[in-house]
């Protein structure tokens, strides 16, 4: 199979990808809207609970109405957390859907000796290649909330942009450098 034939076949195989991604984003958007609704309910009930607790002459743990309200708030909070976990699952599925296509492209271009940095160049001598075009992508599950796992440099996407003076990838919103040795130099 020539490089052109492979790329043509590959592009054809991506025909359903946009609709699958769009469907996944719609599910994510729906879960997001449901989360915000749950969060607003939780906050409203929490404010009401605090006001009632301040006005109550009975200790909070002994007032049946306040105990019931607190249990209801805890239930709403747990529902919101479950919705956040559902959003993470949707995001992970979208990531994996796209990542499978990227990994497939990387593997096939490496196997065929295609250099995507210079589309006109096809390497004839595979021994002249210095290494793989890219390493396997990282999984979003390595950064999943609550797992306690923080991605290490071994499983980070090599195409991930590097930031700051420390040349590390972002592990969330980049506000300042987390690297103590760099932060003290600034």
UniProtKB/TrEMBL annotation:
Gene: ING5
Transmembrane parts of this sequence: none
Domain Inhibitor of growth protein N-terminal histone-binding: 6-112
Pfam families the record matches: ING (PF12998)
Renumbered residue ranges of the record's region Disordered: 116-154
Domain of life: Eukaryota
Protein name: Inhibitor of growth protein 5
SMART domains (alphabetical): ING
InterPro entries in the record: ING_fam, ING_N_histone-binding, Znf_FYVE_PHD, Znf_RING/FYVE/PHD
């Amino acid at each position: 199979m020539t490089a052109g034939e492979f790329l043509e076949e590959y592009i054809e195989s991506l025909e359903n990808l946009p609709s699958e991604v769009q469907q996944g984003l719609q599910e994510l958007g729906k879960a997001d809207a449901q989360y915000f609704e749950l969060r607003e309910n939780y906050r409203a009930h929490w404010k009401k609970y605090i006001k009632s607790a301040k006005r109550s002459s009975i200790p909070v743990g002994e007032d049946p109405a306040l105990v019931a309200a607190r249990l209801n708030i805890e239930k709403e909070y747990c529902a919101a957390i479950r919705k956040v976990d559902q959003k993470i699952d949707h995001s992970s599925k979208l990531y994996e859907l796209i990542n499978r296509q990227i990994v497939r492209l990387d593997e096939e271009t490496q196997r065929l000796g295609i250099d995507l940095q210079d589309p006109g160049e096809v390497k004839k001598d595979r021994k002249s290649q210095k290494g793989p075009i890219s390493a396997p992508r990282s999984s979003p599950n390595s950064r999943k909330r609550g797992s306690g796992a923080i991605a290490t440099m071994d499983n980070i996407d090599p195409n991930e942009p590097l930031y700051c003076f420390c040349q590390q990838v972002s592990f969330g919103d980049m506000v300042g450098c987390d690297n103590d040795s760099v932060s003290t130099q600034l």
